[in-house]
Design goal:
This protein is of the alpha/beta class and about 375 residues long. The protein folds into three domains: about 15-115 and about 350-370, Udp-n-acetylmuramoylalanyl-d-glutamate--2,6- Diaminopimelate Ligase, Chain: A, domain 1, CATH 3.40.1390.30; about 120-140 and about 255-345, Udp-n-acetylmuramoylalanyl-d-glutamate--2,6- Diaminopimelate Ligase, Chain: A, domain 1 (3-Layer(aba) Sandwich); about 145-245, Alpha-Beta Plaits (2-Layer Sandwich), CATH 3.30.70. Helix content is about 25%, strand content about 25%. Helix 1 crosses helix 11 (about 350-360) and helix 6 runs antiparallel to helix 7. The longest helix is centred in the C-terminal third of the chain and has 12 residues, at about 265-275. The radius of gyration is 28 Å and the shape is elongated.
Length: about 375
C-alpha cells in the first residue's frame, strides 16, 4: 500500500499526497524518456479532493473545478516537452496548464512509473486477462543510496579495533542490523624494502603472517570516512584493502507476461477484454479462432516492447495500439495480438489508483473522472 500520508494542521498538503503517489508508482521505475511526478503545483497547498484521469482536457478540468478538486492525477503527462510560454488562448496544452495554475489545481503524472509498479496499469490489465502469476518484460535497478563492499586484511589481535573503527564511521549496516561483518582466517605475505617500517616481521625479508579477511558493507558516501578510520586503527604502515561497488537487487519493471487460466480462442479473449475495458474498437493480429495459452501485456502504445519477449504461436500480445510494421513482425513470428485502443487499455487502472490513494491518505477524496474519454470514436 505504501506509506500513509500524515496530516498537517488538520488537513493533507500536496507534498504528502505526492509522497503517497510516489510510493504507489515510484518515479525510479519510469522510462528514461518520460516526465513523471508533480508537474505543477505548490507542495505546501492543502489538498482534500483529487480527480484521476487518463488525459487532461478542457472538460476534465471543468469537472475538477466543479468537484472542487485541488489536484488532478493525469496518467499522461500534460507537460512532456519543454514549454517556452504559457498563454491563456492557445490550441496547445500550455493553455490548459495555465488554467490549472490560475485556479490553483496541481498536476501529477505517474505514466510509465505506474505501468511498471505493482498493482499498476499492466497488472490491472493482466488481471482482466485472468493472469495470476506474472513476470515483467524487463527488470530495473531501484533508485536509492548505493553501497560498497569493503574488505580489509587485519592481524587477529587487531581485528576488533579495526572493525569498531569502521562501524563507528558508518560501516556495517544492513536494514535494521548494525555491526554486520564477515571474517575469514588466512595467511598474508609481504616483503618490505629498506625504507619500510613493518609492524610485524622485518624489512628486507619475506614474511608470512596470519590475518583475518574482514568484510563489511558501506554506504557509498561513507567510504572515504570508513577508509580513513580503518587506516587510523590498522597496525600496518600500508594496510591492504579493497572496495567493490555493489549492484542493488533488480525490481520488476514495465510490462507483464504469464499463463492464461485456460486455453482460449483469440476472438473470445478479445471479446472478454472489450467488455471489461469498454473498448470501442478492438483490432486483432491473427485468426480469431486461434487458441492461445499465454499473454504478454503492455498497455498503451507499447511499440516494440512486447517483441522483447520470446513469443510463440501459443502467445497473445495484449496492448493498446500496434504500429503497422510491428503487426507484420508479430504475424511473421507466428504470434497473435489484441489491440484494445490506447486509452481503453490504460483506463481500467483509475478506480484502483483512486482507492489505493484514499487508503494511503485518510481524509482524502479521490474520484475517477467521468468526463475523461477516448479521443477516437467508431465509425457509424
Amino acid at each position: 500500500m505504501g506509506k500513509r500520508a500524515k496530516r498537517k494542521q488538520g488537513a493533507l498538503v500536496l507534498g504528502e499526497v505526492c509522497t503517497a503517489l510516489e510510493a504507489l508508482a515510484p518515479p525510479a521505475l519510469a522510462q528514461s524518456w518520460d516526465n513523471v511526478g508533480l508537474l505543477a503545483g505548490d507542495a505546501t497547498a492543502t489538498v482534500d479532493r483529487v480527480l484521476c484521469c487518463i488525459d487532461l482536457t478542457d472538460v476534465v478540468l471543468d469537472e475538477a473545478l466543479g468537484r472542487r478538486c485541488q489536484l488532478i492525477v493525469t496518467y499522461h503527462p500534460p507537460i512532456f516537452r519543454p514549454i517556452i510560454a504559457l498563454r491563456a488562448r492557445s490550441a496547445g496544452m500550455e493553455a490548459l496548464v495555465w488554467r490549472c495554475i490560475r485556479h490553483g489545481v496541481a498536476l501529477y503524472a505517474p505514466h510509465t512509473a505506474l505501468d511498471a509498479a505493482e498493482g499498476g496499469t499492466n497488472d490491472v490489465l493482466a488481471e482482466l486477462c485472468g493472469l495470476t502469476v506474472t513476470e515483467p518484460l524487463e527488470y530495473v535497478e531501484p533508485e536509492g543510496e548505493r553501497a560498497c563492499k569493503l574488505i580489509v586484511f587485519v592481524p587477529p589481535v587487531h581485528v576488533e579495533a579495526v572493525a569498531d573503527a569502521m562501524f563507528a564511521a558508518g560501516a556495517g549496516h544492513i536494514g535494521a542490523y548494525s555491526r554486520c561483518s564477515f571474517r575469514t582466517p588466512g595467511q598474508g605475505t609481504f616483503f618490505g624494502d629498506e625504507t619500510t617500517q613493518p609492524a610485524v616481521g622485518e624489512r628486507g625479508k619475506l614474511e608470512y603472517v596470519d590475518e583475518i579477511r574482514l568484510e563489511t558493507v558501506v554506504p557509498a558516501p561513507a567510504v572515504p570516512a570508513v577508509v580513513a578510520a580503518l587506516r587510523r586503527a590498522h597496525p600496518y604502515e600500508e594496510p591492504a584493502f579493497d572496495v567493490y561497488p555493489l549492484k542493488p537487487a533488480l525490481v520488476r519493471g514495465i510490462g507483464r507476461m504469464g499463463t492464461l487460466p485456460k486455453p482460449v480462442s483469440l476472438g473470445a479473449l478479445a471479446r472478454r477484454l472489450r467488455r471489461a475495458t469498454g473498448a470501442t474498437v478492438v483490432q486483432l493480429v491473427g485468426d480469431p479462432d486461434h487458441i492461445v495459452t499465454r499473454a504478454v501485456v503492455a498497455v498503451g502504445s507499447a511499440g516494440s516492447l512486447p517483441l522483447r519477449a520470446a513469443t510463440s504461436a501459443d502467445d497473445v500480445i495484449v496492448t493498446g495500439e500496434i504500429r503497422h510494421h510491428d503487426a507484420l513482425t508479430i504475424h511473421r513470428q507466428g504470434c497473435t495480438a489484441i489491440a484494445l485502443g490506447h486509452w481503453a487499455s490504460e483506463r481500467p487502472v483509475l478506480p484502483s489508483l483512486a482507492r489505493r490513494l484514499m487508503a494511503a491518505c485518510p481524509g482524502l477524496d479521490a474520484f475517477v473522472s467521468a468526463a475523461d474519454a477516448d479521443p477516437f470514436r467508431p465509425a457509424r
